[in-house]
Specification:
mainly alpha; Serine Threonine Protein Phosphatase 5, Tetratricopeptide repeat
């Protein structure tokens, strides 16, 4: 009996010790910081915003550093804010080709909170990228277990598994999501999108029309219009699809992230003119955090539209602004080749037209039948 009691005490100490270590790992040097809590929270939010902007621009090292600075403000306190920043730091680490460090951050979060669904989800993504489907599926199960009514996680689990060639494994999460009880715009929008993913376009349309009606009544906004546009496309109703794409774009005219998303969708549909327009509208917003991605998208759309001269000019400035993008530098060389060839073809065409005009200049049509200018 005494032995069992000692074992229980030892286990409690180990759990407490792991929790302390996890806290230290999550907050970095935060345990040694002092100061006003409100001021530290404001600093954390500021560093977090800088990190998010840096990540959107592809500056992953800068993002990682700023997320860590945000965590350093915590003074050892772990709240939802710190957990969220940890997830963003883990994502930045992965994008910076540091997957093991990203997994370590997720491990530390889960040592602190075993029920944090987002950490399971992100770690599962990392395992899936590494080809370890067994660990990925185990983490996805845990993510779904603790997701509660977070439809987004269920949807992302399906989309990730579908892309990985495991559609059947992913579909069970869509079915689980449909079993959730809910009401209102959020419920209708997500249920509609789930039906869309399952290919049940009539049910998708029914749910999404209700969601859009509530949106318009409440003045709120989410992705219902976008999903309804996609559903209308699948039902062959291009006019309705265009109507809701336009409405969605107008409601997000100042959101560069949404405009980039719309541009990417148009590129996938090979609608390059619309894609180019969306990217350009995104670039016209105030200080777009995803400017680099918008500029790359615009250049790609111009190439597909055979506007090689415009694409070359924009790429020339792009490689000056983003010299670390080696792929863009290679594409720039390609564009210069394409425009040089196009110039050569145009020059040859003009030369041929000029020669043809010179050969025919001053000829008497009557000479063709052997008569002279007097008609004899």
């Amino acid at each position: 009996m005494i032995k069992n009691r000692q074992t229980n005490i030892s286990m409690k100490k180990q759990k407490r010790y792991r929790r302390i270590i996890a806290t230290a790992l999550l907050t970095g040097m935060g345990l040694m910081l002092t100061g006003c809590g409100e001021e530290k929270t404001e600093n954390a939010l500021a560093y977090r915003k800088i990190g998010i902007n840096a990540m959107a621009e592809g500056n992953y090292e800068e993002a990682i550093n700023n997320f860590q600075l945000a965590l350093d403000q915590s003074k050892g306190q772990i709240r939802n804010l710190e957990l969220d920043i940890c997830m963003q730091k883990a994502e930045a680490l992965y994008l910076n080709e540091q997957p093991e460090d990203a997994i370590a951050v997720c491990d530390a979060v889960l040592d602190y909170d075993k029920s944090y669904a987002t950490a399971y989800y992100l770690r599962g993504n990392l395992y899936l990228q590494q080809g370890d489907s067994e660990k990925a599926l185990a983490d996805y199960e845990q993510a779904a277990k603790y997701a509660d009514a977070d439809y987004e996680i269920y949807i992302q689990l399906y989309e990730n598994l579908n892309r990985a060639g495991m559609k059947a494994e992913g579909e069970k999460y869509l079915n689980k999501a449909l079993e959730l009880k809910g009401k209102g715009r959020y419920y209708l929008t997500n249920c509609g999108y789930i039906y869309y993913l399952m290919g049940d376009y009539e049910n998708a349309k029914e749910q999404l029309l209700q969601a859009v009606a509530i949106e318009q009544k409440e003045g709120e906004d989410d992705k219902a219009e976008l999903y309804l546009a996609q559903t209308a496309e699948q039902l062959g109703d291009e006019q309705t699809a265009a109507q809701y794409y336009k409405a969605y774009a107008e409601n997000h005219a100042d959101d560069s992230i949404v405009l980039e998303e719309l541009g990417n969708m148009a590129m996938e549909k090979e609608d390059y003119a619309d894609a180019c327009a969306y990217y350009q509208k995104g670039l016209q917003t105030s200080n777009p955090s995803n400017e680099q991605l918008l500029r790359r998208g615009e250049i790609a759309a111009l190439e597909q539209l055979y506007e090689f001269e415009q694409a070359k000019e924009k790429m020339a400035q792009y490689v000056l602004d983003y010299p670390e993008d080696e792929q863009a530098a290679r594409e720039y060389l390609f564009l210069k080749t394409r425009t040089a060839v196009a110039d050569q073809i145009e020059e040859e065409k003009q030369t041929a037209e000029a020669a043809q005009a010179t050969d025919g200049f001053g000829e008497d049509p009557a000479a063709e039948d052997g008569s002279d200018s007097t008609g004899q």
